[in-house]
Amino acid sequence: MSEAFPWLLLPSLWAARNRARRREKGDGLRAALFGGLGLGVAAAMFAVTFWLTWQLLDYEELGEYLIRLGLSWLFLTFLSFVAFSAVVTSLSTFFLSEDLRLLLAAPIPAERLFHSRFVRTVVQSAWMVVAFLLPVLLAVGLARCAPGGYYVTAVLTVVPFVVIPAALGSVMTLGLVSVFPARRARDVLMLMGLLFAIAIVMLLRFLRPERLLRVESLPDVTGFFATFQSPVTPLLPSFWAGESLFAGLNGRLDLLHLGALWTTALAFVVLARAAYGRQYFSAWSKAQEARKARFTRLRLLEPLVRRLPLAPARRALLVKDLKVFLRDTAQWSQLLLLVALALVYVYNFRVLDLDRIPYMSRVIKNVYAFVNLAMAAFVMSAVAVRFVFPAVSAEGPAFWIVRTAPVSMRAFLWSKFWIGLLPILVLAELLTVTSNHLLGVGPFLRTLGAVAIAFMTVALVGLAAGMGARHPRFAAENLTQVAGSYGGVAFMVLAVLFILATVALLAWPASVYLWHDTHGLPVPPRQQAGMAASFLAALGLSLATFWLPMRSGVRALDELG
Amino acid sequence: MILVESLVKTFGAFTAVDGVSLEVAAGEIHGFLGPNGAGKTTTIRMIAGLLKPTAGRVVIDGHDLAAEPEAAKRALGFVPDRPFLYEKLTAAELLRFHGGLYGLEGPLVEARARELLELFELLAWRDELIESFSHGMKQRLVLCAAFLHRPRAVLIDEPMVGLDPRGARLIKDVFRVMSRNGVGILMSTHTLEVAEEMCDRISIIQGGRIIARGTVDELRGLAGTEDVQLTPVFLKLTGGSGLQEIEL
Fold it and tell me: Which one of A3, A315, A420, A522 is most buried, by most CB atoms within 10 A?
């Protein structure tokens, strides 16, 4: 057994088993929260796919064609996803993992090491795709009443399908690390991946898929689908996977495409093994070289911060946080994604054509103003979970420096709060004011929106900072992990509840006021009192949502062991 | 300078530190020895303010750590056993940040930082990111940070880890000068030669309790041995039986 490569996978399996065995406080709640969310998403995907496939049954040939095209496109998307994910994962599994020093010093044949690391790369880069495919393929099969052979074909298709891009990604990483040092390569990849994601988001949005729902644009539909087809598609594994699954759906076995998948997967693994056998050690060795890193000096930052009326400790924390953030590609590059999302957000309001319903446009605009408020707050909570929630965890193992310094945890957490609040508040106001302007809502709702989003941002940033201090993960490898942790998910749940409650508390008095305003009537005193109470309740909720988690966060930091 | 009274730390049912008391006077170098898992690092972490004691009291330069944590921490310089630092800062920026946390800014801190970087032979690296530093360089940078604010008491967990012989020699000289200037130093170490050479008094901890305290001669007396070296004395006091019959 110890001669076979799976032996080298045992430490990760044992570690997972030990983690599962170790019961910690809150594990049950955590499992229920994540399990529930996972099952909910899977059930939703199953339901949507089932419904879509079921509807397409009515369209005979067109339906068949769309299912075939859909499968092919689904796999094409995943092909690029797994390939990119494998490039990033293999950088870690083959070059940056801490245990590699131990393994490379041990008398382990190169092939065994390659096989064990490659299996890890495949699993880590493809598990999400497989988890997504499971409910989708199951739903397609059940909706089409597919025979049992379809499910066997699905397994036989997905396995080689994920191996091909994983092998390709691993070889690309080998090439990349042969040129750049591993840490630099990771930065380059992060940036590339992000730009890729931004391009996809922008492209999808600017294609304006909502046009498909309009009757007058129906003649364009065929052209729209035609753009999806390209001459290279039949040469890609995604096409083979789609074809073999489609055959399985109809009770046939497409040996040609299935065979193409398996032989290509095998060939790619053999080629990747050969490439690693020849190049791995020199690439790994190069990856260890610590060159003097190039970085932004940010010389202007300190003189600028020195002008702020802050205590030296606050100033020191601010300069440190900004420098660490701006020098970490994984951190600042996320801002690009944020800018893209903000642009798409505002663009949505620009293309919104509410004047098509003239009689209702005023009412709908008012309703949209509240939808806008809620949406902007959701965007802010997503920004907060990514940038503010991990702020305490970002201190990492170096947190001892602050903890042993004469700085109270209260001052420390407040510093994190202010650093997070200012940029998020500017973004929130910009989004709300611009989108309300594009919507063309009246001055009352514009002012209400601007004031409400300010309070909501304060509350959300306070909630994120406080809960981030309550649930820190100082050992996390990257801050995305922190945002996706139990505390991050719990923050998002609370943030959504807070947003819904606040919007409800604001919408009622606003609608009373607007109704009376439209009809030229004064608001009766009783209703005025009710409106004031509702506004005050919203204000109180915001202040409590900000203050209580901050206080609890400070206490948690004081108690930190 | 450092006063520890009846310090207790429990983790669930396990008592890691069980009523430890010790006192480090001004100008004294006090060694803190013990086998692995004896409670040394837990005690040190409580004195540094990194861990909340279950019971007991820590006083630094007359300030109770629980009641006046900021005043107590201002008087202390701490060097942990592992030099985790902000990797995306340069050495000079880290020292500037550290100074800011202690309320120090301006040309005086810059001059002090330069002086320490020169002393610990890091001046050529002052504008390089810490992520490109070796373990020993990081350890020397931590020492610079710990001494930057001229602490009245110094707490060091394993001072020689990662230092080359030249660095080790330097740190011994620095401790001697600080001791002469009235700084109290509490030093946890496994390097018994260092403890023997440097320390005025030594406390030995085992199973969370202090089992012996005194000068090297007093410890020799307590162990009932005439050995010149501290290692046999330590092994006798802590019940270690030395090297077993094992096949190597």
Answer: A420
